[in-house]
Amino acid sequence: MTKCYDLDLADPSAQLPVRPAPAWVLVRHGQRVLGEVQLGPDDARSRDEICRDLERRFSVAVRSRQLLDAPPPTELQPSDVAVVVCTRDRPHHLNLCLRALRALDPAPAEIIVVDNASTGTSTRELVISHGMRYVREEQPGLNHARNTGWRATSSAVVAYVDDDARADRHFVAAIAQGFSSPEISVVTGLVRPAELASRAQRAFEQIEGGMGKGYERRLFHAGHAPVGVHTYRCGVGTNMAVRRTVLDAIDGFDVRVGVGTPTRGGYELDLFVRVLTAGHSIAYEPHAVVRHVHRRTTSGLLAQMRDRGLTFSSTLRLYEREGRLSSTAVTRELVRWHWRRHLRRPLTAARRRNWMAVSLCLAELRGSLGAKRAVAATPPRAPA
Question: Which of 63, 74, 65 is nearest to 173 (CA)?
């Protein structure tokens, strides 16, 4: 089993809890994330030797961060941030998520759990036992729940964390720092695995790259390409914060797309596009960290890849139907995507006898073939 650890180089007493190999170690200096290293199963060094090596490896980064990379100025405080968790019939995941949220330091303005039509009362009882605010949304669909969440709070910023994610204790402070100027309307953050206990979880990270977007802060402005793979670089929905005024201005999340709809996903892609085309900016803040529990079984991972293929292709087709993209632009994007993802990648993987990678590519391709049916089942956008 591969372990996932955090190591704070600013803490003289910090140690890896056990002999770590094989392990993925997220290296930080206080609240600042420096990078990640992987320790192989043949690493015979002691814990002290490994820690000293990591300190040497990141010493330049530590010094440069201390001297040059002070936290950016911000107009917001952690008390301006509300955290929203949307859930449905997953009390085990939710319990671990809420435990992490209780440890946030500093604490947010409030934590709201939106119960998206769960059966039974276990979700409500769990939320109450943690002393958090419980809100019920009877209409199934993740975007219905997300809209209920932001409308239930008056906080300036709404930060969304999935129920299968574990927020780092510095999460709220980093989110607040991400809003370093008024034009930044969305802040996303770093997502690392919570565990790498199964072959499927390791494959998602090693083959697909997981959900991480790197360790450098980036800004995306309205002039950036607002569609396709470019928008996915902005971040992912399991670690995303939005100004409440912007959600109000764009009427929140589009309930026609996302989990629980024919497109199966794409809510963050749609939101990022709408935010950018409205003239706002998005900041990727790597110091805002959550750890996500990836699909544990191969069948679950293959289903995720099918949904990813369906989501991407159907989202582009929806934009074509609505006149937000030309047919030429959609065709060019899909041809580029299929060439890279479903021809070149599986052929390379087959030559290397990496059959898991081939299976993931083919699952995504199969999902994309359902785009026409998904678009036909999606109602038209309501007139503004």
Answer: 74
